[in-house]
Amino acid sequence: MVEFAPDTVTQPDTLSDAGAATPVTREAVLGAFLRAHRERLAPADVGLPPGRRRRTPGLRREEVAQLAGLSATWVTWLEQGRPVALSARALASLAAALRLSRAERAYLFELAGRRDPQQAGSEAVPPAVMASVHGIAGPAYLLDRQWNALTWNAAAAELFIGWLDEESQERNLLRAMFLSTPLQALVEDWPHRAGRLVAEFRAHSIRHADDAPMRALIEGLMAESPAFRAAWLSQDVEDREGGRRGFHHPALGALQFEQLTLWPAAAPGLMLVMLLPA
Fold it and tell me: Where is this region: Disordered (predicted)?
């Protein structure tokens, strides 16, 4: 039996449709989603015999419960939109039982307000995403959840001395920003940019704050950089909005770019950053 937590849920969020007379609760949306996907499955799809004649399409709730290792009562309550808080493991079992696609599984976990344990490990980066970085004319790079540079193009290697150049041994953007003297000299208005970078990282990393690599990164920087420690303890949070980025390059001189950050749908958790001519 999969573990689940029948805890009482606080005041539910609401998802309102334009023109709707009453708000639709998140639990009701979750219930409708589960019911629709249960009704789309035939017994043969999940290796069950057809059994006796069925009055409604798809699997029965009892069959989904059996496949997921859950109580049929809890499956019923979920479909009815009752405030039931299932554990991440139970949601994963439901997703597997209902044969949900990656996008459907992600939607299920978002609705339930849980983090998918499948997303806790390192990302497998699709080759097309990696290749796209090298097809961009200006400086471009791809970051993982801890903001380690996974790949970057030649223009980025030329620009980012102290981080992406051949001489640098540090590929983590945060560590380079606070521990690399060449990168600090390169970045225009470094104190402001470094503080904003920490605020952006706090917003980006919150969903993975309990991951061991994330904790190790933050704890290491807290110990090694007083400037990072002060910025982190300030509790500032900002969106990664892009905008003008200035650099003082020792060989190329003063440079100005417009930064654009994209989140590839094919690689959740990763960021593709491009610097466009200003």
Answer: 1-20
Answer yes or no: do 159 and 30 share one domain: no
Q: Which domain holds residue 200?
A: 127-277
Torsion of the alpha carbons at 81, 95, 60 and 85, rounded to the nearest 10:
-30
- Find out whether 127 and 264 touch, Cβ atoms under 8 Å: no
CATH number at residue 220: 3.30.450.180
Point out the domain boundary residue: 119, 151, 178. 119
Higher pLDDT, 246 or 69: 246
Domains contained in the chain, number:
2
pLDDT tens by residue, 159-209: 999 999 999 989 999 999 999 999 999 999 999 999 999 999 998 888 777
Residues 184 and 160 sit within 8 Å (Cβ to Cβ): no
Nearest to 112 by CA among 138, 87, 93: 87
Q: What is the pLDDT of residues 5-25, one digit of tens each?
A: 433 333 334 344 444 444 478
**For the chain, first and last CA: distance in Å?**
58
Q: Which two tokens stand for residue 261?
A: 């950050």
Q: What is the pTM of this model?
A: 0.63
Tell me the C-alpha distance between 187 and 36, whole Å: 52
Judge if 76 and 160 occupy the same domain. no
Phi then psi for residue 140, to 5 deg, are: -150, 145
